[in-house]
Amino acid sequence: MQEWANQLCENRQFGSKMTDSKYFTTTKKGEIFELKAELNSDKKEKKKEAVKKVIASMTVGKDVSALFPDVVNCMQTDNLELKKLVYLYLMNYAKSQPDMAIMAVNTFVKDCEDPNPLIRALAVRTMGCIRVDKITEYLCEPLRKCLKDEDPYVRKTAAVCVAKLHDINAQLVEDQGFLDTLKDLISDSNPMVVANAVAALSEIAESHPNSNLLDLNPQSINKLLTALNECTEWGQIFILDCLANYTPRDDRESQSICERVTPRLSHANSAVVLSAVKVLMKFMEMLPKDLDYYGTLLKKLAPPLVTLLSAEPELQYVALRNINLIVQKRPEILKHEMKVFFVKYNDPIYVKLEKLDIMIRLASQANIAQVLAELKEYATEVDVDFVRKAVRAIGRCAIKVEQSAERCVSTLLDLIQTKVNYVVQEAIVVIKDIFRKYPNKYESVIATLCENLDSLDEPEARAAMIWIVGEYAERIDNADELLESFLEGFHDESTQVQLQLLTAIVKLFLKKPTETQELVQQVLSLATQDSDNPDLRDRGYIYWRLLSTDPVAAKEVVLAEKPLISEETDLIEPTLLEELICHIGTLASVYHKPPSAFVEGSRGVQHKRLPARAGSGESAESPDTVSTGGVSEAPPAVIPSQGDLLGDLLNLDLTPPTTTGPPPPTSSMQMGAMDLLGGGLDSLLGGDIGGSPAMGASFGAPPAVMPGSFNAPVSGGLSDLFDLGGGVGMPMGAYVPPKTVWLPAMKAKGLEISGTFARRSGVVQMEMTLTNKAMSVMGDFAIQFNRNSFGLAPAGPLQVLTPFTPNQSIEVTLPLNTVGPVMKMEPLNNLQVAVKNNIDVFYFSCQYPISMLFVEDGKMERQVFLATWKDIPNDNESQFQIKDCHLNSDAASNKLQGSNIFTIAKRTVDGQDMLYQSMKLTNGIWILAELKVQAGNPNYTISLKCRAPEVAQSVFQSYEAVLKN
Amino acid sequence: MIHSLFLVNASGDIFLEKHWKSVVSRSVCDYFFEAQERATEPENVPPVIPTPHHYLISVLRHRIYFVAVIQSEVPPLFVIEFLHRVVDTFQDYFGVCTEAAIKDNVVVVYELLEEMLDNGFPLATESNILKELIKPPTILRTMVNTITGSTNVGEQLPTGQLSVVPWRRTGVKYTNNEAYFDVVEEIDAIIDKSGSTITAEIQGVIDACVKLTGMPDLTLSFMNPRLLDDVSFHPCVRFKRWEAERILSFIPPDGNFRLLSYHVSSQNLVAIPVYVKHNITFREGSSQGRFDLTLGPKQTMGKAVESVLVSSQLPRGVLNTNLNPSQGTYTFDPVTKLLTWDVGKINPQKLPSLKGSMSLQAGASKPDENPTINIQFKIQQMAISGLKVNRLDMYGEKYKPFKGIKYMTKAGFIYINWRLLCSSSEWTLAHKNLY
């Protein structure tokens, strides 16, 4: 630094004689006055020196506009340098002196006729830069000539001039027909002229989004591709960007363009490379995936992208922002290049942060060990922002790569041990997300987290910790004390923390009602009476009313299962991603926003879309189109963001917007709130909660994942009886009996149907195999059920792909609902079915396992269970023996849970395990069971109690079927 | 397209502005200054800054920020590449690119900028075209011009401007025809404490200095072209020929240019030519620490490792060091805690070492930071990737040129993560019962 400064001083002193810095020295007399005299000097040399002084003053922002007439006087000269200098001056000041500027017009017009093409070009170029209406009028004629000049240098300069003129006076350009001339230049013989014409047209088109300026057709594309090979690097950028707007007619054209663009990937200019990547990424979309060339192209894309990362940091930054998009669209391109994204210690912070982001996107089971080792390293660096992001990245790894979760958690715990304040807070925030993703796996670390309670001062971390305490209140002995400690400064907390605290305490109350009544009163009154925040107040009131009218409903709402969070967190929404891929290399791609969101003056920018893949079969063979095209039908559900009412009630307010499994009917975020206000809330506020089964439904049925994630809370005096011990483990899927032949071919003129019933994700399905054993084609299938015990009915038509040819066999899945007409059958689970086809109508009957009617929320509360058990008369109890079952009680419980038979409690008496279980049928009938399992004895005894004892036999059969398979 | 350019020096003054369209007030740079203030280090200023009506895209070179102002959707890489080209041109013209040099040549700078962009569109950025349009200042020419009143602006249309080989002018004449190629490779590697390589990549370039008469057509072939699978070429290289035959065929620009740059990243190809043995210890409760570092060569094919420079950022708790270099000199800056050791050449018989003690702040706990060691060095006459030029042939001209090829390996940054952080015992996630 010192050396540099010295050098600078030296230069200053030295420079005063020999160099241009002498132009900056001023005399006392008044600079302008002196310059004026010099400009009017007779000596050419003196004049030139004076103009140089004027230019020098101009460059540093001094106002030398007063010298305008004197400088313009110097314009008529045959000295090119002097001419150029005067032009420079004119461009800067003509606007402020429009009347004076007219003086220059004559010289301009004359210069446009000069035999030297350099002077012709210079004149037309400078005229275009003078933004004065009077001058532009005079510009039209010379410009028209120059656009058709014999010298390509003049033509290419004139092409740019049209764009300048358009900027000043668009109407004039259109009236004079310059746009058409410009379009003709796309077919010019000189590639440089083509490139400039394309550039000019692109710029004009930006302000005319709907004009057909760049009407690309196969012929003009061919011309552009030819010019692409021969023009300068800048011209290549313009041409490539223009090509990217073209939509090829078919995959063959697409491939041939790709082939001609690929060599650009080896260009030294990174902007050329990125523009070529854009064209390829877009046109690739049209290529069939099984094409060899598709694979070749994918391989060719990786090296140039990697090379961009060894360029200067500014280039790296832009490249990384774009790679971020590319990795989301086509992760396969860079999946083996993880290491190039490792952070170097001398990277600027903006590069480091981007690299981290991409590392997470590329993290997979194969490379996770390496990534974690790196991230752990980063978490000990100096830069706070970077460290925070690194810690967050560890959490994202855990969520993305399930196998790594355990290592991530232990890494985070190590980091918490460092006691570095911001590291601890960041770690707690991400651990909360990990809890959400993997319930009942890592809660053992809660104790460690609680130790750091006092050091949390950031709202996000405090809120995360409160969420954890509330969510796991039943496992934390002093949860009430912990939450109470937060309550003291309630009004000083940020809204985020207040809301969280409110929800957490309500959760705590629902889990441990006896000890925490006072606490919940306190928080409700703080929220509703002492707060000005409407969100907080409203939420407080809702809880209050819920709790006071119907605690069971409150429980259903507050302790509802939360949708899982997935690694898709903070992925760019697919339609936006598609649009951004079309804008690779632009500002839009740097900001990850569509151009319409921020580009000023772009009146109605057209939304670009990736082209659809070619080929006739739109659905089957191209999974990619399905995944992108399917988006509009089933957008990933977005958890309502903070402040959203429903989100709040489900206490999701802490999570970043995440996507979840089951798609809701509408994609927008308002859906939850609308729905709630439409149905749920009215009934809620009306106090009509108890009898309203719509309640649960309007909150969106909890996804059918992991029942049993609920661990037994400890309460009342039942703890000795109800002791489930540790976690139950993950349940297996519901039992599906093997297919049996329902309708033999002999009985149905060649149609054979075999099938079974299954319950998948809460939907009852009839899964059938239809075989055509006749000699002719079948069609026109339809199905109907007779009335049956549980009102089963087809939820949709029978979809059989036609033509259904002889000897063909197809799988058909028919979703069922239970809203059909009811009639008691004998046996209870008998179902009569009629199937019609083009040949005849056939009848058959089959029996379904009653277990498929067991619903997901069939887990009874233990107190309710005890009460119900007592309440049901003993006459209704039936006992059965299940023989030859070799499972222990835990395995049995697990297995049953898969079929929605929930174990509520387990008791061990004299080596005999007693499992207390409940299940609920679709029509709301509860069945309670006591399963006795004696170690070493393969025979189980089961007692069933139900208000409708008729079902017992079928339930027992289901038990047997589930346990033995 | 590019609207305006502002040049800002390290102290935050705008010392030059150039507008290609209408004038944009320099107050737009206030947004840049804000970002500059927020950045902890000068190089941490984000390269793209949005303002309400414009976007500022900047690069930092030679302690000068080149801030381009754009108004519409323009590819940022295009702007950054252009700014780099401006820097290169200044350096080419004035030898250095400093505030002083730019101010000294402000008129030439202005003429150049005007020639390089027209209405924001690049016009002439090739050095040989620019040099025909605007002659670079030399002391001799300045004096001659002053005396004779002649000018340094070319009167003729540059010949290369529109030809199929825009990078070469016609009518080049030399009495000595020479072509030199320098193969320069930089290793960039991260090595962990145990000495195993985490990442290693080679960034290679072939820089050429070609002074040949007329329109020579050159071909350059390699012994092992398979090494080059990730390359960027100068526009003069015929890509088809390379694809088909792995031969570089080109009509070279006149003078200095970068023929190609390449990137070798597969681990097995990258051997690190030096090794470091290091040991740094702090005893708990003591205010002293031991420092021990030894360097040695490996896999250098008998070539000497020269100009070795080791630097390390020591933990903040270190007050001072008392070290003994077996050769070279070392400095420790107690303010920045930067230890630099200028080793010089490594003698394989007597390995250089740096040993001694460090004093720590009294009562401070064991430092838990994570210092790194950076090593820089040069090896002449060797390209570490093993790349070798097979032959250079010239067609199209009759004379016999003098040809020369030079190899060199440099360490860009090799850094060793040298962990003090005790590797904490693996946490076992036993399912403790929290009841």
From TrEMBL, chain B:
<dbReference type="GO" id="GO:0005794">
    <property type="term" value="C:Golgi apparatus"/>
</dbReference>
<dbReference type="GO" id="GO:0006886">
    <property type="term" value="P:intracellular protein transport"/>
</dbReference>
<comment type="similarity">
    <text>Belongs to the adaptor complexes medium subunit family.</text>
</comment>
<dbReference type="GO" id="GO:0030131">
    <property type="term" value="C:clathrin adaptor complex"/>
</dbReference>
<keyword id="KW-0653">Protein transport</keyword>
<dbReference type="InterPro" id="IPR001392">
    <property type="entry name" value="Clathrin_mu"/>
</dbReference>
<dbReference type="Pfam" id="PF00928">
    <property type="entry name" value="Adap_comp_sub"/>
</dbReference>
<protein>
    <recommendedName>
        <fullName>AP-3 complex subunit mu-2</fullName>
    </recommendedName>
</protein>
<dbReference type="InterPro" id="IPR011012">
    <property type="entry name" value="Longin-like_dom_sf"/>
</dbReference>
<feature type="domain" description="MHD">
    <location>
        <begin position="176"/>
        <end position="418"/>
    </location>
</feature>
<dbReference type="GO" id="GO:0016192">
    <property type="term" value="P:vesicle-mediated transport"/>
</dbReference>
<dbReference type="InterPro" id="IPR050431">
    <property type="entry name" value="Adaptor_comp_med_subunit"/>
</dbReference>
<dbReference type="InterPro" id="IPR028565">
    <property type="entry name" value="MHD"/>
</dbReference>
<dbReference type="InterPro" id="IPR036168">
    <property type="entry name" value="AP2_Mu_C_sf"/>
</dbReference>
<dbReference type="GO" id="GO:0030659">
    <property type="term" value="C:cytoplasmic vesicle membrane"/>
</dbReference>
<keyword id="KW-0813">Transport</keyword>
<dbReference type="Pfam" id="PF01217">
    <property type="entry name" value="Clat_adaptor_s"/>
</dbReference>
<dbReference type="InterPro" id="IPR022775">
    <property type="entry name" value="AP_mu_sigma_su"/>
</dbReference>
<keyword id="KW-0472">Membrane</keyword>
<dbReference type="InterPro" id="IPR018240">
    <property type="entry name" value="Clathrin_mu_CS"/>
</dbReference>
<keyword id="KW-0968">Cytoplasmic vesicle</keyword>
<keyword id="KW-0333">Golgi apparatus</keyword>
